[in-house]
Design brief:
seven-stranded mixed beta sheet; elongated; single chain; Glutaredoxin; alpha/beta; 173 residues
Length: 173
Amino acid sequence: MNRYVKWALPLLVLGLMTYFGWGFTSALSRKREAAERIHTLPACAVTPLSGQSVQLLATGRPLVLVYFDPDCDHCQREANELRQNAHQLAHADIWLLSAAPLLALNAFAQAHQLNTISNLHVAHITQQKAYDTFGFTSVPDLLIYHADGSLAKRFRGETSVTAIANYTAPLPE
């Protein structure tokens, strides 16, 4: 019995170290892949409040993607600031993406008067697609793309419209 313990314990420790090492390196690899994938705007279909699926594509204008949750206090403040300072981002397309149901998103858009801003769109995206495509894990999470579809900046957490506007300026020729 003592002989089995003498061999089993080191094997168990070695097995656990291998398992955790593999888990760490695969998670690191997934993070690196997501960072490379978002370097240019990936094609992604979302469902705006109209219910018709739409592809997010580079349109020749800067693009701001905000991943949010209607019940998040930070996200509500972000939405209010976007509405109040929409003129600073008039030259960009803004998409607020959430995994919440369309009914909740519609109520959120009406409560924060987001449907009055022509270049701001609220849309549904599944949580899995948000993670797989853009690496969104928490709210609010922002990705800002230049007009050519290249990544300008990523912000995690509540971000001022002024900071967003600084990265939506046209690329120098």
